[in-house]
């Protein structure tokens, strides 16, 4: 059971996180200072750094939670599923849990606005791509272990994850620039994009 001290710490962190994302999405990431985030919650800069290493850490705090959830979801997929199917099912069947994960930290609407801010802010987009590469390496090693192959000598785990990661990046970009930025919309876009991987890689694109 959560103690009073633990509850207070959790609430302080949540308040700082919400303050950071609100400021990042309204006045811009580069224009926001740690002092402004702390002042909005009426705490000191020192208190902010007890919970976050810096602005970037706060900007990606919710994404880190969803990434960890996805890794766990892949790990939990049935052993009989082929690697790409395991990745597909992990992401598509996990949306409800992802929503719960997000809502445990910040409102979904704020999370979605922050997603768009990341896509439109060069420094954050670069960090996002760097973080995605690290997550992809984790997933590749997980798939290799699951399939009983050596990730250092067998290129298939990294190739599968590279394809999947590419699909997700295309989907994120299309979603972030569209009119419907709901979780339902990105789930539908993800499913549609994954359905087209086969024809995109091996199909004839020219109309006859």
Topology of this structure?
Elements: H1 4-27, H2 34-41, H3 45-51, H4 55-59, H5 61-75, H6 83-92, H7 95-103, H8 108-120, H9 122-147, H10 156-176, H11 183-195, H12 197-202
- Element pattern in H and E: HHHHHHHHHHHH
Class from secondary-structure proportions? mainly alpha
Q: How large is the count of helical segments?
A: 12
Over the alpha carbons, how many angstroms does the gyration radius reach?
19 Å
For the record, give the distance between the C-alpha atoms at the N and C termini, rounded to a whole number.
65 Å
Entry keywords:
single chain; mainly alpha; 208 residues; 75% helix
Short structural description:
By secondary structure, the chain is mainly α.
What does this 3D model show about the protein?
This protein is mainly alpha-helical and 208 residues long. Helices cover 75% and strands 0% of the residues. It is built from 12 helices and no strands. Helix 6 packs parallel to helix 10. The longest helix is centred in the middle third of the chain and has 26 residues, at 122-147. The protein is globular. The model has no long low-confidence stretch (mean pLDDT 90).
């Amino acid at each position: 059971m959560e103690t009073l001290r633990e509850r207070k710490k959790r609430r302080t962190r949540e308040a700082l996180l919400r303050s950071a994302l609100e400021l990042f999405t309204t006045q811009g990431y580069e224009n926001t200072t740690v002092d402004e985030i702390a002042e909005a919650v009426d705490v000191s800069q020192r208190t902010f750094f007890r919970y976050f290493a810096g602005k970037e850490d706060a900007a990606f705090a919710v994404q880190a939670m969803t990434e960890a959830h996805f890794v766990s979801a892949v790990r939990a997929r049935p052993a009989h599923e082929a690697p790409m199917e395991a990745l597909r099912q992990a992401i598509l069947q996990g949306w409800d849990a992802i929503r719960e994960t997000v809502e445990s930290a910040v409102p979904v609407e704020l999370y979605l606005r922050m997603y768009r801010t990341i896509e439109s802010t060069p420094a954050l987009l670069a960090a996002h791509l760097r973080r995605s590469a690290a997550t992809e390496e984790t997933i590749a090693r997980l798939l290799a272990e699951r399939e009983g192959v050596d990730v250092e000598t067998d290129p298939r785990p990294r190739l599968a994850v590279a394809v999947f990661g590419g699909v997700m990046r295309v989907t994120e970009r299309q979603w972030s620039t569209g009119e419907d930025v709901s979780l339902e919309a990105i789930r539908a876009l993800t499913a549609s994009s994954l359905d087209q991987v086969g024809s995109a890689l091996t199909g004839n694109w020219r109309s006859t």
